[in-house]
Amino acid sequence: MFNIISADLYKLKKSKVLLWIILGLLGIVLLGNILAQSGDGIMTLMSDTMNYNTIHFKKNGTEIMPELLKGSNILIFFLIPIVINVFISDYKYETIKNTVSFQYPRTMIYISKMLVCSLFAIIIPFLYVILGLIVNLAFNGFNNIKLADVLITIKIVCAQLPIYIGFVGLMALVGVVFKSNTATTVFSILYQFVILFISSIASNIDISAVDPITCLDRLAYLNTLSTTNILEILCVGIVLVICSVFFGNYIFCKNDVR
Fold this sequence. Notes:
single chain; mainly alpha; two-stranded antiparallel sheet; globular
């Protein structure tokens, strides 16, 4: 397992994917702060069913960290290249057979690659809020630094992690089923638009409680949620992780590898 993980980490290191992810996150927080300086302190990254992701970039210092997580659904897009490079591209370049031919159990291969993807599902949210804080301090000066903001940010991200990891599992599942980078990308991008479309044409259906993307944004308001609400959202994430990994691994073990 360690050899597979090391190989995937090395492959990511050699590619420019991580650099582009950092530049993309930096671009978002830079744009938000530039808009804030021009008088518009609000930036909507992606419309969702409950409009939870309107970010006020006029927040100063560490206040911006939990604020940024109101639009954490945008981070799903930054997980796409990780999943593709670690896993699905092996089908495109027909290198998956090399790993299987070393007589590694297929379940071990799948779990190893999921662990690498999950690692970056943990790293990217923290990187996002750290970059946001650095840029905010550069624009507004080193003021309004509060430990409480840092602690609530850590709590929010930790509560969000099952959903990030679950969505990574869904991407891998789609990729394994279709053996396609394009299918993984299209699914990840269109999912949010499909949810928005459903909620707009069926206003009597409230899907916010079970939609993972909306649950991500709801958790940004962790202090206003009851323990029951938090547990319900955690259950959504945990069920997503279990189902996506189980079915993804099952299909991967049954697929022909060429």
